[in-house]
Amino acid sequence: MSKFDLSSIEDYVANHLRLFIFSVVGLVIFVGIIAVSVFFIAVRGEEQTMVPDVVGKELTNALLELQVKELYPRLQLRYSQTSKDKGYILEQEPIPGTIVKAGRRIRLTVSQGVILNRVENYISQNLDEVRMEIQMINASSGILPMFTIKEPIMYEFSAEKPGVILAQKPEPNSDISGPTTLEFVVSKGRENQSINVPQLSGLTFTDALTAISSSGINYQFTLRERNGDERGGTIVVQNPTANNSVPLNTIVNLTVTVPENISNNETFGLFTYPIPQNPYPLSVRLEAQLPQGERKLLFTVNYMGGQFTAPYRQPKGTILILSMMNRELYRETIGE
User: pLDDT tens for residues 70-81?
Assistant: First the structure.
């Protein structure tokens, strides 16, 4: 091979090698530019977000909402006008709907509850509602309860509705410096108050329960088999009879006949449970939890106390649940 030919081959290889290197370098630079562009486009799309509205929400839920938006809280604590606000968001900055960069800190003002340095005015409030409010105050006050209610409660007849607080000690707005015992005088309602007995005879027992709920009468159910052409599941005896004016605590006795055509999957009976006597009627509720899990209200009434009774016709395996003032007293599975 001649010297000329060898030199030409070397030049040819060198040229193609440079071209290959330049192509590889160019390709790497091009890919790098695309990657950097995609990165900044992605970052730019994520760096802005809308501030959610968390005012009035519990702190834990508010923090979760901020986390989803990639925002961070700056917490401030402040006393509020009611203990019910404790742990809830009172204010936020920036306001809801503001567009901000991701990673921005959002100022949240969280309620510490109320400053307990004086006694509230509980006069004219319902005793049961005050009890629940005091439970909330005590739950937020630490180890020692801030308030206790002196027992037994003093009751007296008055023109106010039963359960309304007539007087309190310490008096409203009295200064306090530590745990305090509250003494209440509570209304029993009018003395010798009378009530008109409604017409219940002839009603089905479910309709009778509805009528009792709104009438305010004291009552007692008994069951018996049907006689002659009597309808099943109906009030056949009522004593005292309808339209009589009787003292408020008079017991209206109601006799219910056993229904016809009770299927093999059903059960009929009389739910009974002894409830202690109350100085005034308290809210009592009877519910049914069906075998498939559904829960429904059967009967609600303001009840003075005594042998609580209520007829039922429900699927076998139903659980009957009795509650007073939202506190469960007793449950029973029927038809087993």
Answer: 999 999 988 777
The structural domains of the chain, with segments of one domain joined by +, span: 53-111, 127-187, 194-333
Which amino acid is located at 223 in the chain?
L
> Is residue 252 scored above 60 in pLDDT?
yes
CA 130 – CA 165 distance, rounded (Å) = 9
- The whole-angstrom separation of Cα 111 and Cα 60 is 13
Measured CA distances, 333 to 171, 267, 314 (Å): 48, 11, 11
Q: In terms of CATH architecture, what is 53-111? A: 2-Layer Sandwich (3.30)
**What architecture is domain 127-187?**
2-Layer Sandwich (3.30)
129-166 in b/e burial notation, b at 16+ Cβ within 10 A?
A: ebeebbeebbebbeeeebbeeeeeeebeebebebbbbb
Say how far apart CA 244 and CA 200 lie, in whole Å: 12
- Cβ–Cβ under 8 Å, residues 306 and 320: no
Range in 111-125, 172-186, 292-306 the model is least confident about: 111-125
- CATH number, span 194-333: 3.30.10.20
% of residues, the chain, pLDDT over 90: 56
pTM here is 0.58
Alpha carbon distance 70, 129 (integer Å): 41
